[in-house]
Specification:
With 84 residues, the chain is of the alpha+beta class. The chain is built from two helices and six strands. The protein is 18% helix and 29% strand. The longest helix is centred in the first third of the chain and has 9 residues.
């Protein structure tokens, strides 16, 4: 899911949440609340997407998984159209 999120971001999408999504109700409409403006992504996924791991903060020291900061990030809850 994180690799797909990163690919969609490269195509111009806006991130709402990567790891955990909280669904709430606003005026009886389900909405997903924005989480953190990062994607946790593995080094091999970065490579496949043409992204570099240099300068990225590791999630944990022994893993080659990194926090990839996101510029296009939702700041308000987004209505839920569907769940897969």
């Amino acid at each position: 899911k994180s690799t797909l999120a990163a690919a969609l971001l490269q195509a111009g999408a806006t991130l709402v949440a990567d790891d955990i999504s909280v669904i709430d109700f606003h005026d009886n409409v389900p909405v997903v609340r924005p989480a953190f403006p990062v994607v946790k992504i593995w080094a091999d996924s970065l490579k496949q997407l043409g992204m570099k791991e240099e300068g990225l903060e590791p999630v944990r020291g022994e893993l080659r998984k990194y926090y990839y900061p996101v510029e296009r990030f939702a700041t308000r809850p987004v209505p839920v159209a569907s769940v897969f």
